[in-house]
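User: For documentation purposes, I need each entry recorded in a consistent format: the amino acid sequence on its own, followed directly by the corresponding structure tokens. There are two entries in this batch. Please keep commentary to a minimum and don't merge the entries.

Assistant: Recorded as requested. Entry 1:
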Amino acid sequence: MNYDSPSDLQSFENFIRRFRPVFAKAHGAARRLESGANASGGLESWCFTFLPDYFCRTPSLMHRWMFR
């Protein structure tokens, strides 16, 4: 994805906006899982199981859009 292109960025924003409830739900599940499951790897293993690894490697930008 080319982040320099406004149309790409806009469509990505629209995608995030549409699926934010889903992301928030997944994020909440991950937080609950992380707080009680550090033995099983916590958030990172959950992340690699359910989300693409680019999300896990660079979460900050995605999180700013998803959970703002």
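Entry 2:
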Amino acid sequence: MSYKKLALAAIVALGMVSSVQAEDEVVPPAGNAAQNQGSGTIKFHGFVNTGACSITPETQNQTVELGSIAKHVLDNGEMKSTPKPFSIKLENCDTSNLQDKTVSTTFTGDTIQDDILAVTGDVTGAGVALGLENGTPIKLNEAIVNPIMDGSNELHFSAYLQGLGEQGGVTPGEFNSSAQFTLAYQ
């Protein structure tokens, strides 16, 4: 074999080896920087219940904004703020194993007076009260029964700040309160 043919064979063989190696390398597309341009972690959390329905994530744990309430509203007249609506949304309901096709909702929490939830923060002389959609006050620790059907259902409630009628009225400032709810299907 001549020197020229040997050199040509070596060049062809080298080209084949380098193209095989190139297939193993990760080469970013042209014009795309190979650096990290953002990253993060996505966490997933949930709970599997034994009830007839799933509670939508956005209504399982929620915050009801009662707003900025003028002190005189809580010291005079009805002594309560404007009720703010909230709901508990149920989905994927299967009522086939329910005798009455109802759901009972029971609210609990730390109280300052009968059925008035205690507040934390600067405010004194007031607490948070819960009501039905029509404004009827809710008694804590007592079940509220609603009919349900297969599919999606929405349970409607309201919350408001209630003045307690104490000497000196309500102390202004920021407040927080919380209630827990439990569902039972019949």
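Summary note for entry 2:
The CA atoms of residues 92 and 151 lie 5 Å apart.
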